[in-house]
Amino acid sequence: MRDILPELIRWRNEGKAIALATVVQTWGSSPRRAGSKMAITLDGEIAGSVSGGCVENAVVEAGVRSLKTTRPQLLRFGVADETAWEVGLACGGSIDVFVKPLDYKYFEALRSALESEKPAVSVTVLRGPDGFLGSEFLLGENERGANPIWKGLDEQITGLAAEALLQGASRRVRLSGEVEIFLEVIQPPPTLIVVGGVHIAVALTSMAKMLGYRTILIDPRRAWASRDRFPDVDRLIQAWPAEAFGQIEVTRSTAIAVLTHDPKLDDPALKIVLASPAFYIGALGSPATHARRRKRLLADAVSEAQLSRLHAPIGLEIGAQSPEEIALAVMAEVVETRRKREQAAAEADPVPHPIKDGE
Fold first, then answer.
1. pTM of this structure
2. pLDDT tens digits, 60-77
3. Whole-angstrom Cα distance, residue 29 to residue 81?
4. Can you tell me the distance from the alpha carbon of 272 to that of 5, in angstroms, rounded to the nearest whole number?
5. Fold held by 191-342
């Protein structure tokens, strides 16, 4: 939703009716994951994507039809291996897409959650009795209480939403009989924190911004951490690590790259962040440098379990030499780590009634 929010706001201000198509489940290969969205207006404007191929055309037609009838639709597209490229899939599989007119009242609640950058779960009824199909409500983190859909299912829905939010994975679930819901996890955009305003950091923060990460640079040395060197960084903190991390909330959506090569900066920063929930922590340096670093940190009460989280030497092994190539290797490792975590969460099966292919 975040990627198409500007278009939705503009169309809303222009008074246009909007249909919203959401990928609610995929099987096999799909270039777009659950939660991906495409918005459609009656006059043919579109924003976003649900597949990247000619599936889009059918979804646009369904969106216009949904706007005219005011009824939601659950669509399934199955693709054989030999025709997969024609519909934007790398190989055979299937994709379910839920299309419904955008409820502006609910949109404002969702927009508020996105702009406040607080975790939440959007609950949508995909199948159910007339009057409930397409119903939506929002559950914030640690929020409990009655939902406006079905009394008696409050605890089950709240528990499933909390589990989805903890794992960071959207999912489709059958509650009972023919009742199905889609739990869409809404997370703040990922953040990359870089310790050290070195040359690699200039390229790394630029790449991270391009990929949708919020960027924070920490370095007490004013000559290194200046707006002249980092004009586009979201936040620049000219302070030592202990003070700087006291001003930052490190979450499961945070990646951290420690780049100074100076133990006076790197070691205190690593001691702090290795005890945090950050999904990625990496430190620059050769294997020999890292061996000395490990020895110092172990002597400073950092555990082996914490050190096992550290990516060092930092970055994927691509033969990088220039600062820009090293930044590419680091960012690639950050993305890989994040996607592997999401994939592991998506493959977990903590829910009582997941929807399987063919159902």
1. 0.72
2. 999 999 999 999 999 988
3. 10
4. 35
5. Rossmann fold (3.40.50)
